[in-house]
Amino acid sequence: MSTITLKNKVGRKLGTLLLAGALATGGVAVAQVAAAPEAEAAVCGSVSARPGYAYASNGCGYAQASVGRIVSGKGKSVTATKYRGWVSVSYKAGSHWYSQGKVW
User: Fold this and answer.
1) Tens-place pLDDT, residues 89-101
2) 62 DSSP 8-state letter
3) Which of 48, 64, 75 is nearest to 104 (CA)?
4) Which helix (H) or strand (E) holds 25?
5) Do 49 and 100 meet the contact criterion of CB atoms below 8 Å apart?
């Protein structure tokens, strides 16, 4: 059995056990958040961006902040992702390309 297949099986088993445990302990709300689709999970978060700075926060899913700058004619970027928390990045060199926050 390949390592990837084994990791996938372990991941699915762990997810099933966590969901079952949440339901068994009366944590229906926790189970609903854990099983929520991307669109529903995103409502727990907020994003903010301005040239050179990006912020994202998500208490029930993933948050990602990303800033792109053009330095010496080449696009360069910095990105950070966090599960259940806030994340921010800044990048001041060069000229503005993009600054964005995402939650899912």
Assistant:
1) 999 999 999 999 9
2) E
3) 64
4) none
5) yes
